[in-house]
Amino acid sequence: AEMRRLLGMLRSEGEEVALAPEPSLRYLDGLAARLREAGLSVEVSVEGEPIELLPGVDLSAYRIVQEALTNVLKHGANATARVVVRYLPSDLELEVADNGPNSGRIDTDGYGLVGMRERVLLYGGMIDAGPRDGGFAVTVRLPLDPDRV
Asked: At a CB cut-off of 8 Å and minimum separation 6, what does 51 contact?
C-alpha cells in the first residue's frame, strides 16, 4: 500500500491515486461475485484454518485464482467453476477447475498460464494446469514457510 501511494505521488497531476486494498485471498468472495455478474457460475470453498500469509504469497495466490477464473470465463463456454483454497500444514493449495467443454484449450494467445507459472516459481511452488475429463483445472501449491524457497 505504501509503495502504491508513493507511486501515486509520482504520477502527473490529475491522475487518480489507487488506494484500494491490495488484492488478497480475503477478497475471493468479491472476485467470485464480480465474475457471477459477468455470467460465470462460481463456487468458492476454503478448507483448513486460514492463516495470515506473507503479502507476496497472498497477492500471488489471489492473482492466480483471478487469472484461472478469467480463463474459464473466456474459454469455458457456459462452464461452472469451482475454487478450493486449502490451508495445509506446510503449503497453501489452490484448485480452480471447471466443467466446460474440454477442447484441449491452452491459453496460447495470452500470458495467463505463463504468468501463473512465474508467480508459482517465484515462491518455490508447483503448478499443474491442463485439460481434465470434462473441463480444465489449475492446481497450485505454494509453501507457507519462506525458508523452504
From this structure: 87, 144
Half-sphere exposure (Cβ direction) of 123: Cα atoms closer than 13 Å: 28
pLDDT per residue over 6-20, tens digit each? 555 565 455 555 566
With beta carbons less than 8 A apart as the criterion, state whether 23 and 63 touch.
yes
DSSP string, the chain: -HHHHHHHHHSPTTPPP--SPPP-GGGHHHHHHHHHHTT-EEEEEEES---PPPHHHHHHHHHHHHHHHHHHHHHSSS-EEEEEEEE-SSEEEEEEEE-S--------SSSHHHHHHHHHHHTT-EEEEEEETTEEEEEEEEES-GGG-
Supply φ then ψ for residue 7, to 5 degrees. Answer: -65, -35
Task: Give the tens place of pLDDT for each residue, 82-91.
Answer: 999 999 999 9
